[in-house]
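Work package 3, deliverable 3.1, input record:
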Amino acid sequence: DADVTQTPRNRITKTGKRIMLECSQTKGHDRMYWYRQDPGLGLRLIYYSFDVKDINKGEISDGYSVSRQAQAKFSLSLESAIPNQTALYFCATSYGLAGELFFGEGSRLTVL
Amino acid sequence: GENVEQHPSTLSVQEGDSAVIKCTYSDSASNYFPWYKQELGKGPQLIIDIRSNVGEKKDQRIAVTLNKTAKHFSLHITETQPEDSAVYFCAARTQYSGGGADGLTFGKGTHLIIQP
């Protein structure tokens, strides 16, 4: 089983709908992240969390919110999805001050 | 903030030849430079990294070089094989970040194609 699991893996929705992407990890890491990947734009940080009571905005947080329900769970919400939020979303984890990120397999979101 | 430029965006090489991907960064305070490999349908995975107190690091067919004066670093893959086909991302982390992965800025990626 994957150490970092994202659900759903694929989702098609309509403009204005609320969407939640979920991430769970079995690595025991304290830090969790949500990234967005667009063709030709690389990986951009949306939100990150150092522990259950800590939430921080990344480079592109507008239009998104997150919840850290437990050390192992970090969800990303789009309150009212719009077409330019169509992208591949990755959850990642890391441990303490170590720099290595461990990514999930991604959630592909299409907003029509 | 940090800005990371990565070139080329696509690189096609013959199997067995070498491949070089280059990145430049803007913040002279950056001190950690990882490289990630993303295979089709998967998340990126760390393949090698280098810190600012080292000029070169090797791991079998993969090497990374760092030139702090010029603010650029490169990934070198020798004797390329079909399984090297993937998208590669460079990244840089400023020392003024929290010290973890939150301070990473990624390049836009290079699609490496190994021709048989």
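Chain A has a mean pLDDT of 94.
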